[in-house]
Design brief:
By secondary structure, the protein is α+β, with helices and mostly antiparallel strands. Helices cover 24% and strands 26% of the residues. The chain contains 8 helices and 20 strands. Bound molecules: flavin-adenine dinucleotide and uridine-diphosphate-2(N-acetylglucosaminyl) butyric acid. The site of uridine-diphosphate-2(N-acetylglucosaminyl) butyric acid has 18 residues, from helix 7.
C-alpha cells in the first residue's frame, strides 16, 4: 500500500495523549481522496479520525487510520431569518463556532470550546449548556463505505438522542460524514437558562446578552471546570449521565437524600454521573500516570504516560463501584478502540 504511511505514532492525534501506533495512516482532503483510500483498504480494519477528542486508544491500531482533513465553509441558501451553511467535516468545531459569531449567525454559541471536528459532531449529537447540535442541524452528507456513493441525511434520519445518533447504532461503521449543513438564525434567540451562564454574564458585567457574550461566558465556565487537553490528557465526560425511572429515583432519594436529579419526559429522571462517581469516592484519585479529575470526576485523565488499557480498567472499576452503591449502570460516552 504505497500511499499509506506505516507505523505512525497517534499520540499527537488523540486528546487523551495516549501513545499507540497505527499500522497504516493516511489523510484525505477531498471526497475523491477518501474514495481512493477506501478502495486500497482491501478488507483491513480502519478508523476514521477527526480531532481524536472522543476516543480512548487501548492498543496499537492494526489497520488503517484515515484522518479527515476536508475543509471549506459555504453558504448554500438563505432567507430573511436563516442562513444555511455547509461545513466540510474536517473543519474544527470551535473555529466554526467563532466564525458564526463573527458573522452574527446565532445558534451554536452555547456549544463553544467543544473540541473536535464538525464531521464528528453529529455522531453523538454534541451538546452543552442547554443546546444540542440537532437544534441547528439541517442535513449532512456521508459516503457509504460499501459503495462509495454519497447519501444525504436530514434531522429525522439521523435519529438524534442524548449523545446518540443513527451512526452510533444501526449505521455504525457504515458511513463517513463528509459535510454538515446548519440552519442558523440571523436574529438570535438567547439560551441563557442553563447552569451558570446567567450568573457568569452578570460577573462579566454584561447587561444585554449577545451571541459573543454567551460564547465568552460558556468558554469561561468550561475553562474553570474542565481540564485543557493541551495540559492534561482527557476526552471530556467519560460516561453519559444515566437516566432512571422516576419510581427508582424516589427509592434512591430516600436512601441518598442529596442525590440530584433532572426530570425528563416519560417519568424518567437524569442523574449526574459526576455526583455518583464523587459519592463512590473517586473524585481527584490518582493512580500513577492516570486518574479522576479533581474538579470534575466525570473526566478521566492521563497525566503524561498513562496507557489506554489502564484507563479502560479504571473506567470499569468506577462502573462497578457505582453499580454496587447505587444500582445504576454507567455507559461510556467515549469510543473505546
Ligand atoms: P474523534 O474523537 O476523532 O471521533 C469520535 C468518533 O467518531 C470515532 O468513533 C470516529 O471514528 C468517529 N468519526 C469521527 N469523524 C467521523 C466522520 N467524519 N464520519 C464518521 N465517523 C466519524 N462532547 C459533547 O457532546 N459536549 C461537550 O461539552 C464536550 N466537551 C468536551 C470537552 C473536552 C475537554 C473534550 C476533550 C471532549 C469533549 N467532548 C464533548 C467530546 C468531543 O469533543 C466530541 O465528541 C467531538 O464531537 C469529537 O470530535 P472529534 O473530531 O475529536 O472525534
Ligand atoms: N457534580 C458533582 N461533583 C462534581 C461536579 C459535578 O456532584 O465535582 C454534579 C453536580 O450535581 C452538578 C452536576 O454534576 O450540578 C452536573 O455537572 P456539570 O454541570 O459539570 O455537567 P456534567 O453533567 O458533568 C454535562 C455534559 C458535558 C457538558 C456539560 C454542560 C454529559 C455526559 N456531559 O456534564 O459534556 O459540557 O454538561 O452542558 O452529558 C462531554 O460530553 O464530554 C461533556 C463535557
Amino acid at each position: 500500500m504505497p500511499d499509506f504511511a506505516q507505523k505512525v505514532a497517534l499520540k499527537p492525534f488523540n486528546t487523551f495523549s495516549i501513545q499507540a501506533y497505527a499500522h497504516w495512516f493516511c489523510t484525505f482532503s477531498s471526497v475523491d481522496e477518501l474514495r481512493d483510500a477506501l478502495s486500497k483498504i482491501n478488507g483491513r480494519p480502519f478508523l476514521i479520525l477527526g480531532g481524536g477528542s472522543n476516543i480512548l486508544l487501548t492498543r496499537d491500531f492494526e489497520g488503517v487510520v484515515l484522518k479527515n482533513e476536508l475543509r471549506g465553509i459555504n453558504i448554500i441558501d438563505e432567507d430573511e431569518e436563516h442562513v444555511f451553511v455547509e461545513v466540510a467535516a474536517g473543519e474544527n468545531w470551535h473555529e466554526f463556532v467563532l466564525f458564526c459569531i463573527d458573522k452574527g449567525w446565532a445558534g451554536v454559541e452555547n456549544l463553544s470550546l467543544i473540541p473536535g471536528t464538525v464531521g464528528a459532531a453529529p455522531m453523538q449529537n454534541i451538546g452543552a449548556y442547554g443546546v444540542e447540535i440537532k437544534h441547528v442541524f439541517d442535513h449532512l452528507k456521508a459516503v457509504e463505505i460499501s459503495s462509495g456513493k454519497i447519501d444525504t441525511f436530514n434531522n429525522e434520519a439521523c435519529q438524534f438522542g442524548y449523545r446518540e445518533s443513527v451512526f452510533k447504532k444501526s449505521l455504525k461503521g457504515k458511513y463517513i460524514i463528509t459535510s454538515v449543513t446548519f440552519k442558523l438564525n440571523k436574529t438570535p434567540e438567547f439560551n441563557t437558562s442553563y447552569g451558570a451562564i446567567q450568573e457568569t454574564l452578570i460577573q462579566m458585567g454584561v447587561k444585554t446578552p449577545s451571541i459573543k457574550a454567551i460564547s465568552d461566558a460558556v468558554i469561561h465556565i468550561r475553562q474553570s471546570k474542565l481540564p485543557d487537553p493541551k495540559e492534561i490528557g482527557n476526552a471530556g465526560s467519560f460516561f453519559k449521565n444515566p437516566e432512571v425511572d422516576k419510581i427508582d429515583f424516589e427509592g434512591l432519594k430516600s436512601e441518598f437524600p442529596g442525590i440530584p436529579g433532572y426530570q425528563l419526559p416519560n417519568n424518567r429522571v437524569k442523574v449526574p454521573a459526576a455526583w455518583l462517581i464523587e459519592q463512590a469516592g473517586w473524585k481527584g484519585k490518582t493512580f500513577g500516570e492516570i486518574g479522576v479529575h479533581k474538579k470534575q470526576p466525570l473526566v478521566l485523565v492521563n497525566y503524561g504516560n498513562g496507557n489506554g488499557e489502564s484507563i479502560k480498567k479504571l473506567a470499569f472499576d468506577i462502573q462497578e463501584s457505582v453499580r454496587r452503591k447505587f444500582g445504576i449502570e454507567l455507559t461510556p460516552e467515549v469510543n473505546i478502540i
